[in-house]
Amino acid sequence: MSSPTLSAVAKISFLSSDVVLDVAGAKVHSAFSPLLSTFHAYRSPKLISVLNGADLGLRISKLDKGIPLITVVLHAERDTLNRLIPALSSLAGTPLVINVAVNGDLSDVLPLRASVDFLIHSATAQLAHDNALLAARLARTERVVVLHVFQTDGRGSFKDIDELKVKPFLAAPKSQATNGTHANGHGGLETLDSFTDSTVQEDARILQYNEAALATLALVQRPILPFHYQETGSVKSTLITLGPTIPPDAIPGSTALLELSLVQPLPTQRLLSSIPSSVDHLIVLEQIHKWPAKWTPLYLDILSLIQTISGERRPQLSGGILGKLPTSSQEILAGVNHLLEDISSAPSRTDLVLGTLPTPSSEKAAQVPHIPKHESAYTKVLDHVFGDRLEVINSPSLVATKGEVATRPEYALGRVEAHIAERSALQSAVESLLGASREIELSQSLHTLLAKWLEVRSDGARGGKIGQEIIKEIEAQTIDHPSAQTILSLRHQFNATSQWIIGSDAWSYDLGSSGLHHAIASGLNVNLLILDNTPYTTRNAADPEKRKKDVGLYAMNYGNSYVSSVAIYSSYGQVLRTLMEADKFDGPSIVLAYLPYTSEDDSALNILKETKLAVDSGYWPLYRWNPSKSTAAESFSLDSEAIKADLQEFLDRQNHISQLVTSEPKLAAELVTSLGSKLAEARSQKATAAYDAMLSGLDGPPLTILYASDGGMAEKYAKKLVTRAKLRGITSTIQSMDSFSLEDLKLEEHVVFITSTAGQGEPPQNGRETFKAFNAAATRGDKLFTTLKFSVFGLGDSHYWPRAEDAHYYNKPGKDLDKRLEQLGGERIADLGLGDDQDADGPMTGYKVWEPLLWKALGVDNVQVTEAEPEPVTNEHIKIASNFLRGTIAEGLKDTSTGALAPSDGQLTKFHGIYEQDDRDIRDERKSQGLEPAYSFMIRVRMAGGVCTPQQWLDMDSIADEHGNGTFKLTTRQTFQFHGVIKKHLKPSIQAINKALLDTIAACGDVNRNVLVASLPSLSHLHEECYRFGSTLSDKLLPKTSAYHEIWLDKKMVAGEAIKDVEPMYGAYYLPRKFKIAVAIPPNNDVDVFANDVGFIAIANQNGRLIGFNVTAGGGMGVTHSNKKTYPRTGDVLGFCTTDRGHKVAESILTTQRDNGNRADRKNARLKYTIDRMGLDAFKAEVEKRQGFAFEPAKPFHFESNVDEFGWIKDAQGKYHFTCFIENGRVQDEPGKDFKTGLREIAKVHKGRFRLTANQHLIVSEVPESELSTIKGLLAQYRLDNVQFSGLRLSSSACVAFPTCGLAMAESERYLPVLIDKVEKICEENGLRNDSIVMRMTGCPNGCARPYIAEVAFVGKAPGSYLMLLGGGYYGQRLNKIYRENVTEPQILAILGPMIKRYALERQKGERFGDFVIRAGYISATTAGKHWYEGMGGEGEYREAGL
Questions:
Q1: Residue 120's beta-bridge partner residues?
Q2: Active-site residue, 783 included
Q3: What is the pLDDT of residues 843-879, one digit of tens each?
Q4: Which member of 457, 920, 1074, 1289 is catalytic?
Q5: Most confident of 241-255, 514-528, 629-643
Q6: Is 1074 assigned a catalytic role?
Q7: Is 1076 a catalytic residue?
Q8: CA 946: distance to chain centroid?
């Protein structure tokens, strides 16, 4: 928590300045940063973050000379302030305030006094506030440099000023000030100035100070004085202090206190006129703990001043240090009395101390540099790669023993040189001892060891081990040879350490003083890891002059160094590869490591997003340069797609570019050429065509329709309006808002704006820049439009944010846009129209009211429309026109001008197991650069039952690395999912999957998708029977089209299309919506059988053999927020069928859905709605009619859980199975968790199979006794054997959501582990660490992680905002219900805290959390899907207000 003085100074700096430079310290982060980021003003200053080590003076000098006021805020640190001194003379005439926060010592600040125009000191919070205003006024009006020093622990609070008065106060003209001759006033008392030998000349700058002080006084209504003087009675001694304030009641009688505020220039005349002539002793106390000279600066100034007083009236002068004062006034008073006693016997002492001084030990401890927590990401990797071999040469831990010098570059390089010299001496000693082996009769064993060490001395592990044996041999023998003694003294050098110097990007501001130049030029075998913390989004603010040197290019030009650019949040594998290559390189290695953050409070998620922006844009390219490679072309390896221009120039200069293009296809012209120019050209052509069409209009006035839409609804209404306008003779053009420039909009006459609502009342993605431009223009008071006539139609959902206080979010973009356009000069021709999802006809209800008003305003309301309006294109049209799922996919794959496919093809590729996506973390940035989104594709494998061989696992691992983003996902459908596959890698990926004897057909789309089969390894016989059933069923329900093999596997149609495709089961339209099947084996419902369209619950006989299934139908998870026509549903049990009839049952249910599903409304097209519309009995009768037999009555069964059983299990056949915890199914390598590598190594030796669970975990299955120790060893080595997590974490699940899922509204996979960290603390506090509570999260309401049957669930509504659901059945038998419609993390924790505590105290034996919240009255039980909304919002006292 910040101190009042910091808050006061930060706020005044923000309000008064035009530019604020926030300087980070070496030992602490800037405490100003979080404060500055929270302030708001009408015209906020430009905030620039300056890293520690940057040349602050040069940074200031490069700013625009016309800036009215520049302010620097920083903490008092010697190196930072000392570097500023030489630059201050060149800053003369600059309106500059330097606010320096000191903590108990002015030693590092006072050396600047002679280099600035004014130095002002503040001891209290109120003084800090007032003097900050004074300093700002002084610097701005006089164009001078003001150093304002304030105590971070200053006493008291401060009275704030009205922020609207600050700018007028600064800009007010100067008044005529007088040079007053008193401070606090003495009436007629005689003062020291009456006895000066000559008139003391006051510095001319005092007049400037007086003027600013008077102006500040008028503003704050408090006296603004150069010093504060107080006395009691007849004064004999005066304390003159510079430092913390002393309470008035701590000053004894006959003693005065003068606390100095204006230090430079010293107000000499005022001082003399304030001290009574009765004073015979002056005591100067300064808060200076480390001063190199004998006399302190203020002491010398006062000494010089009293020399002007005649000898007989001149007071004695003593000096000393003002230390940390006690909190009690009585203790301070005792200290002052003791000090007065000391000077009574020795009047001229200069070693006085008031208060306590820091001890040397505490001082040293305080100087240990602070290491930001985020930077441990790289140090952990170093430790992971090198282990005991790692030696960080400039480790902060050395400060405790070596002092501050231990972290300096020159010291680190000196240590490296000393290490190399010792290592060389050890090698020479070993060679010398070997050479003298005959002379001194070395034993054969020692001779062998010495020779072997010379061979492997560069191998840290082996060399160290042999070295230990050498030492034992030498110590065991009596060897009279000097080399033996040398070896013993250098025994610590046997282990070949990997030496690293770690520095920040501040080093790159000055390559000389940082030691980088010396390290590179020296040729020493040393590794430097240089961290760059500049976030991509603040790169210009952080480095406006772009003075930071490119260390990588500098080192590459030098020619003798290994150079690499890495980013741990982009490619962990590249980091590992780089560190190992750098360690092996014989010479300097420079590793530039990207870690973008501004404070330790930044989340890992934000760092990830910043990293992706930087790498994708080419701002931070990933590369490796190894000059030791045999050819120039091999020296450079580009590990990211984008490369920045200056690096490309270097490669061109090296004449390597032709070879690089050959060896690195990523550098081919079509990839490095800006796609933005192509898009701009296409847009220009489109605009020209639209303009020509507009001129050809004959009837109504031309109309421009601009839309902003995320989900497509606003675009749909815009296209509808275009069609209806053309039918009325109006020439219409349509574009997204952001694709239409503001300059062009100024020239338009009739414009309609249609916008939907995103998040919490935010404009959609493709309209945000337009909204920003309008808001900025309105803030400036601009009138943009003189001819514009407009109307706005907004789409929203009045129930999306149901609380009364959130009602303003409803249709907020439309309402805001309507007001803003009028404010900017536009003329409204038709009132604002609002479409509400909650109306009977949805948004169409409001649209039907609004559209006639528009036609009337355009004068075409009487036009008779006889032509039928074209039917909108739907998925059903796309399917029937696709020629059995072909579309134009093959042609789209060949189009290199875009990374996307045609929208209709994007719907068809789902049937092939492919979803088009883009990286939403960098969507805005690419848009601002004129680039299309970073399109990529998700590929989902079809793998019934989640069973694969070790070789198939290795193949999937390889595909992820070669074609995807290096990771893959184990999904809730028991299969593999790849992300980040760009278009040109689609076909090679599909072919590689098929080569592994798997495929992707029907993994998505309106067909039966991957069939789930329970993964219970303990029931291996039953599982094998169910697996065969599920696998056969999956094949039977596959689409029969040959399009998949033609497009992806290059199989041609027979006889020139003479034989046509046919779909005997699906038909040309396929199904109305997706179709999911699961096979469950009681007592574990790990597949959530009731959440599927069709479920088969295995029924076994007494011998454990499968006899048939209880069949369920009608389950489904998808919902649309606030649309009560949509709801989740659990399946109903239809009855029992024998195993041999199961396939026929599934086919009959599928065809019943095919023929009766709702194809007019995809939101109501799932089987669950078909059953509720037909009625369960009618539906069952139709299925029985199609299958040709009736269901038998259902057999008894029971479920106990739907979570996985972790750890080792032995089955009846003596095989072992281990269930690994893979959080949210993401298989990747990260520091401390090399799961991807570990599973790859297991797959290389495993002889059994792998089973993916429907809860996103993995079973290493069928491990024989002979293989057990090997598998256990690998699991332990890669920490895959750790299942000691909380019951809550083990029972959790999340979908992918951001950044790749186009439907995501909030975070899920990346956020749920963070939330669980906090919720499991609540569980642990209440003794529930090991209790299973099923918690699930999805980023949107489509329900991929099956949230609606979890005991606790969160469904994304907007970034950081979720629907909260409670009361699901522990084994997936009951739906939960909406408890709160909008919760953020603090609200989640506030709700769950007392709820979990009560559960721990009041639960009944065996009672699960989902059952408890119903019994305790928090929520009512959901009895059926169509009744899901009944009782939402809680029950009784727990009901959400406003519902």
A1: 148, 262
A2: no
A3: 999 999 999 999 999 988 888 776 666 777 788 899 9
A4: 1074
A5: 241-255
A6: yes
A7: yes
A8: 33
